[in-house]
Design a protein that fits this description.
Layout: E1 7-10, H1 12-16, H2 25-36, E2 42-48, H3 60-66, E3 75-80, H4 83-90, E4 95-103, H5 106-113, H6 117-134, E5 137-143, H7 156-169, E6 173-177, H8 185-198, E7 203-207, E8 209-210, H9 215-224, E9 229-232, E10 249-250, H10 253-262, H11 271-287
Parallel strand pairs: 1-2, 1-9, 2-3, 3-4, 4-5, 5-6, 6-7, 7-9
Antiparallel strand pairs: 8-10
């Protein structure tokens, strides 16, 4: 991958999952189909988790069966939270990536997956094995990667230690996740500029959450520190429901694209097609919110 090529991971799953009112399957398919034409590297389209935990994603398998993937180059990513989810997702040939949220905060891991960090290590090892057997890749999200609002110990050394452990377990893609919007440019810059050279065989990504005024500083810090994989959602929809600031949402894809265009980075995204998807997002999230 050339130095100026950037992978954009569009996350409609993250944008939709917190919406209480169920978005009809056909509407989801319509929106995802619009995104599939944009040229994103990857679409984080759904999740194989308990419908009790995330009712909005209960129809992920049905959505997948209705997508026309014949004209897209985007790869599909599904989030899984346990072994069963990984097994279910692995049955689908069309899915390239299994995403697993691995929290380095004991509190958040218990809230998110009802498991301790120790149990989550065991789960992740099994997910690596399931993915290998099925020819899938695993994206491990280090959630609470940039700070911790729950009072658990957090510092950049803890992030580095977990990177070391996950690398030893066979992780090839690690996405540092700013789960509740606590990141700042200094921490982002420090982590990526130290970790990327130390682990050349690992692809590092940034899943940043932001308020409308902070996106540029965060994006700039990650890009200039060498990150070339970015998660976002059109118009910044979604984000973590546990964030204290209601303005905190996902990194807006259109802002990332404008920043990367100014940097003369190559994203493969077609602006004309993206504009149509942007309008479709306004319609969808204006109806269901």
């Amino acid at each position: 991958m050339s130095e100026d090529h950037v992978k954009i991971i569009e996350c409609p799953r993250d944008a939709m999952q917190g919406i209480k009112e169920f978005i009809p399957t056909a509407r989801k398919v319509q929106y995802l189909q619009a995104l599939l034409g944009c040229g994103f590297d990857t679409l984080d389209f759904g999740s194989f988790v308990s419908p009790k935990a995330i009712p909005q994603m209960a129809d992920t398998a049905e959505v997948l069966s209705s997508l026309d993937l014949s004209k897209t180059k985007s790869k599909l990513l599904a989030i899984v939270a346990n072994v069963r989810g990984a097994e279910d997702a692995s049955q689908h040939e069309e899915i390239h990536y299994l995403g697993f949220p691995f929290s380095i905060s004991e509190n958040f891991q218990m809230r998110n997956t009802h498991k301790t960090i120790g149990q989550s290590v065991e789960t992740l090892e099994r997910i690596f094995n399931i993915a290998d057997a099925a020819g899938k890749e695993v994206v491990t999200y280090i959630s609470m990667g940039f700070g911790n609002p729950y009072g658990d110990p957090w510092n950049v050394e803890i992030v580095s230690e977990w990177t070391e452990k996950l690398a030893a377990m066979g992780a090839r893609i690690l996405s540092l996740s700013d789960t509740v919007g606590t990141s700042d440019a200094v921490t982002i810059s420090y982590l990526f500029s130290n970790l990327i050279p130390k682990y050349p065989h690992i692809e590092f990504g940034a899943h940043l959450h932001t308020t409308p005024t902070q996106w540029h500083g965060k994006m700039d810090a990650a890009y200039k520190a060498g990150c070339r994989r970015f998660d976002g959602a059109v118009q910044g929809f979604g984000g973590c429901p546990m964030a204290k600031d209601e303005l905190t949402g996902n990194m807006p894809t259109e802002k990332m694209l404008s920043y990367l265009t100014a940097q003369k980075a190559e994203t493969g995204v077609n602006w004309m097609v993206f504009e149509a998807a942007f309008n479709r997002a306004s319609d969808l999230f204006g109806t269901y919110h």
